[in-house]
Amino acid sequence: MKKIIIIFLIIFSNLTYGQIPNELSKEEKIYGLSKFWQEVNYNFVYLNKVDRIEWDKQYKALISEVQNTQNDYEYYRLLQKFCAFLKDGHTNVWFPKKIQDNVLTTDFGDYRLFLSNIDRKAIITKVNKSKKDELPIGTEIIKVNGIPAKQFINQNVRPFISSSTVHILDDWSIKYMLQGYINSTFNLELKLPNSKTISLKLTHSKSTEKELYPEDKTDLFEFKWINKDIAYIALNSFSNWDIMDLFSDKLPEIRKAKKLIIDLRKNGGGNGAVGREIIKYLTKDTILYGSKSQSRLHIPVYKAWGKWTNAKDTINNAWKKQSYLSYHDQYYYDFPYEPYSTSNMDISRIEIPTVILIGHNTASAAEDFLIYADNQENMTKIGEPTFGSTGQPMIFNLPNGGTGRICTKKDTYPDGREFVGYGIKPDIEVKKSFSDYMENKDPVLEKAIEYLNKK
Known about the structure:
The protein is an alpha+beta fold. 32% of the residues lie in helices and 23% in strands.
């Protein structure tokens, strides 16, 4: 526990603890920890991938540690670290709103820095407009509070992030590396694009400047012509059914195209049915194959019987197999699978050479869209692996306004191939380099155009 406290003091040296809620009793802290542990054991669909001995060992150790936390923030940080052990992007612990809104920030008053993982370096890719000359795009953070950036991340950021995939863990560890308390101070050492090194002392406070550089306005739906043959559409979210109307309005234009680019790189998901309703217009297939799903099935009496069942007893015996698997928390319910039929729908279909642009932020329902597209011969994926996490979270309350969620549903390709934990791989991988950022190039889009021009 002393080591944890020392780390917090290093990170937040100028912290005024009076601003941070300290309202949880020891009993509430134990209850919240136990509630999360219990819900994971009972409902987490990927429990079979968890080291159960280590999981329970951490729980036992935390019973003491959570009681000794100095405030509610430290308590929830320990829960987040416990959650991160599960390595799932749809399983999380979130701070109470009073901490999230009033204590935590990534703003530094006059400075707003937005970081991206470029070649495993913490690079400023956006800043408030008034500071664009002082901290130009491409500036690298090389030290934080005297510690090399990579070491700082590994000690103080990475262990607290829940992620199914390594590439998202890398991205988010950099994206959130400077999050902290109001009034907490960071001493930064930065390398400018001209290789000059500067030092900057920044203190967290709310910023009033809204204008950012470069501007990055993202509409729900975007349409443009690349050239006379290639149309481009960006589907930036499936969380709003309005995108269906926007897409329908542009269908007459899309039908004029000989080739199509669909950009999903900013689509973090939403409702999988939205993507399904769009893709049905883009193929002549009348049968669409979506993801296959399963969830854990718990019938207590089978678990009781399973205590006395050995693996050898399950051969050619369904009852004993269910008992054995139930006892080991590995019995699943397979949801009835039916492909989506559009044969009775009166729609004008489009089937032309199509490239789908994907990246690390293509997530959840957008990944469901890619599964529907998987067997479409006219569709090619270009970019980077996707987010690699989907499912149905179960949300529940934690003490004093905190929230937990547990992934309860496993989704795979129809043939059982897994993508959660890996991401959906592109057919042609293209990665944006540091020089691409500096020259404002989009190599993924450029590759898509080159590919379609050869078709």
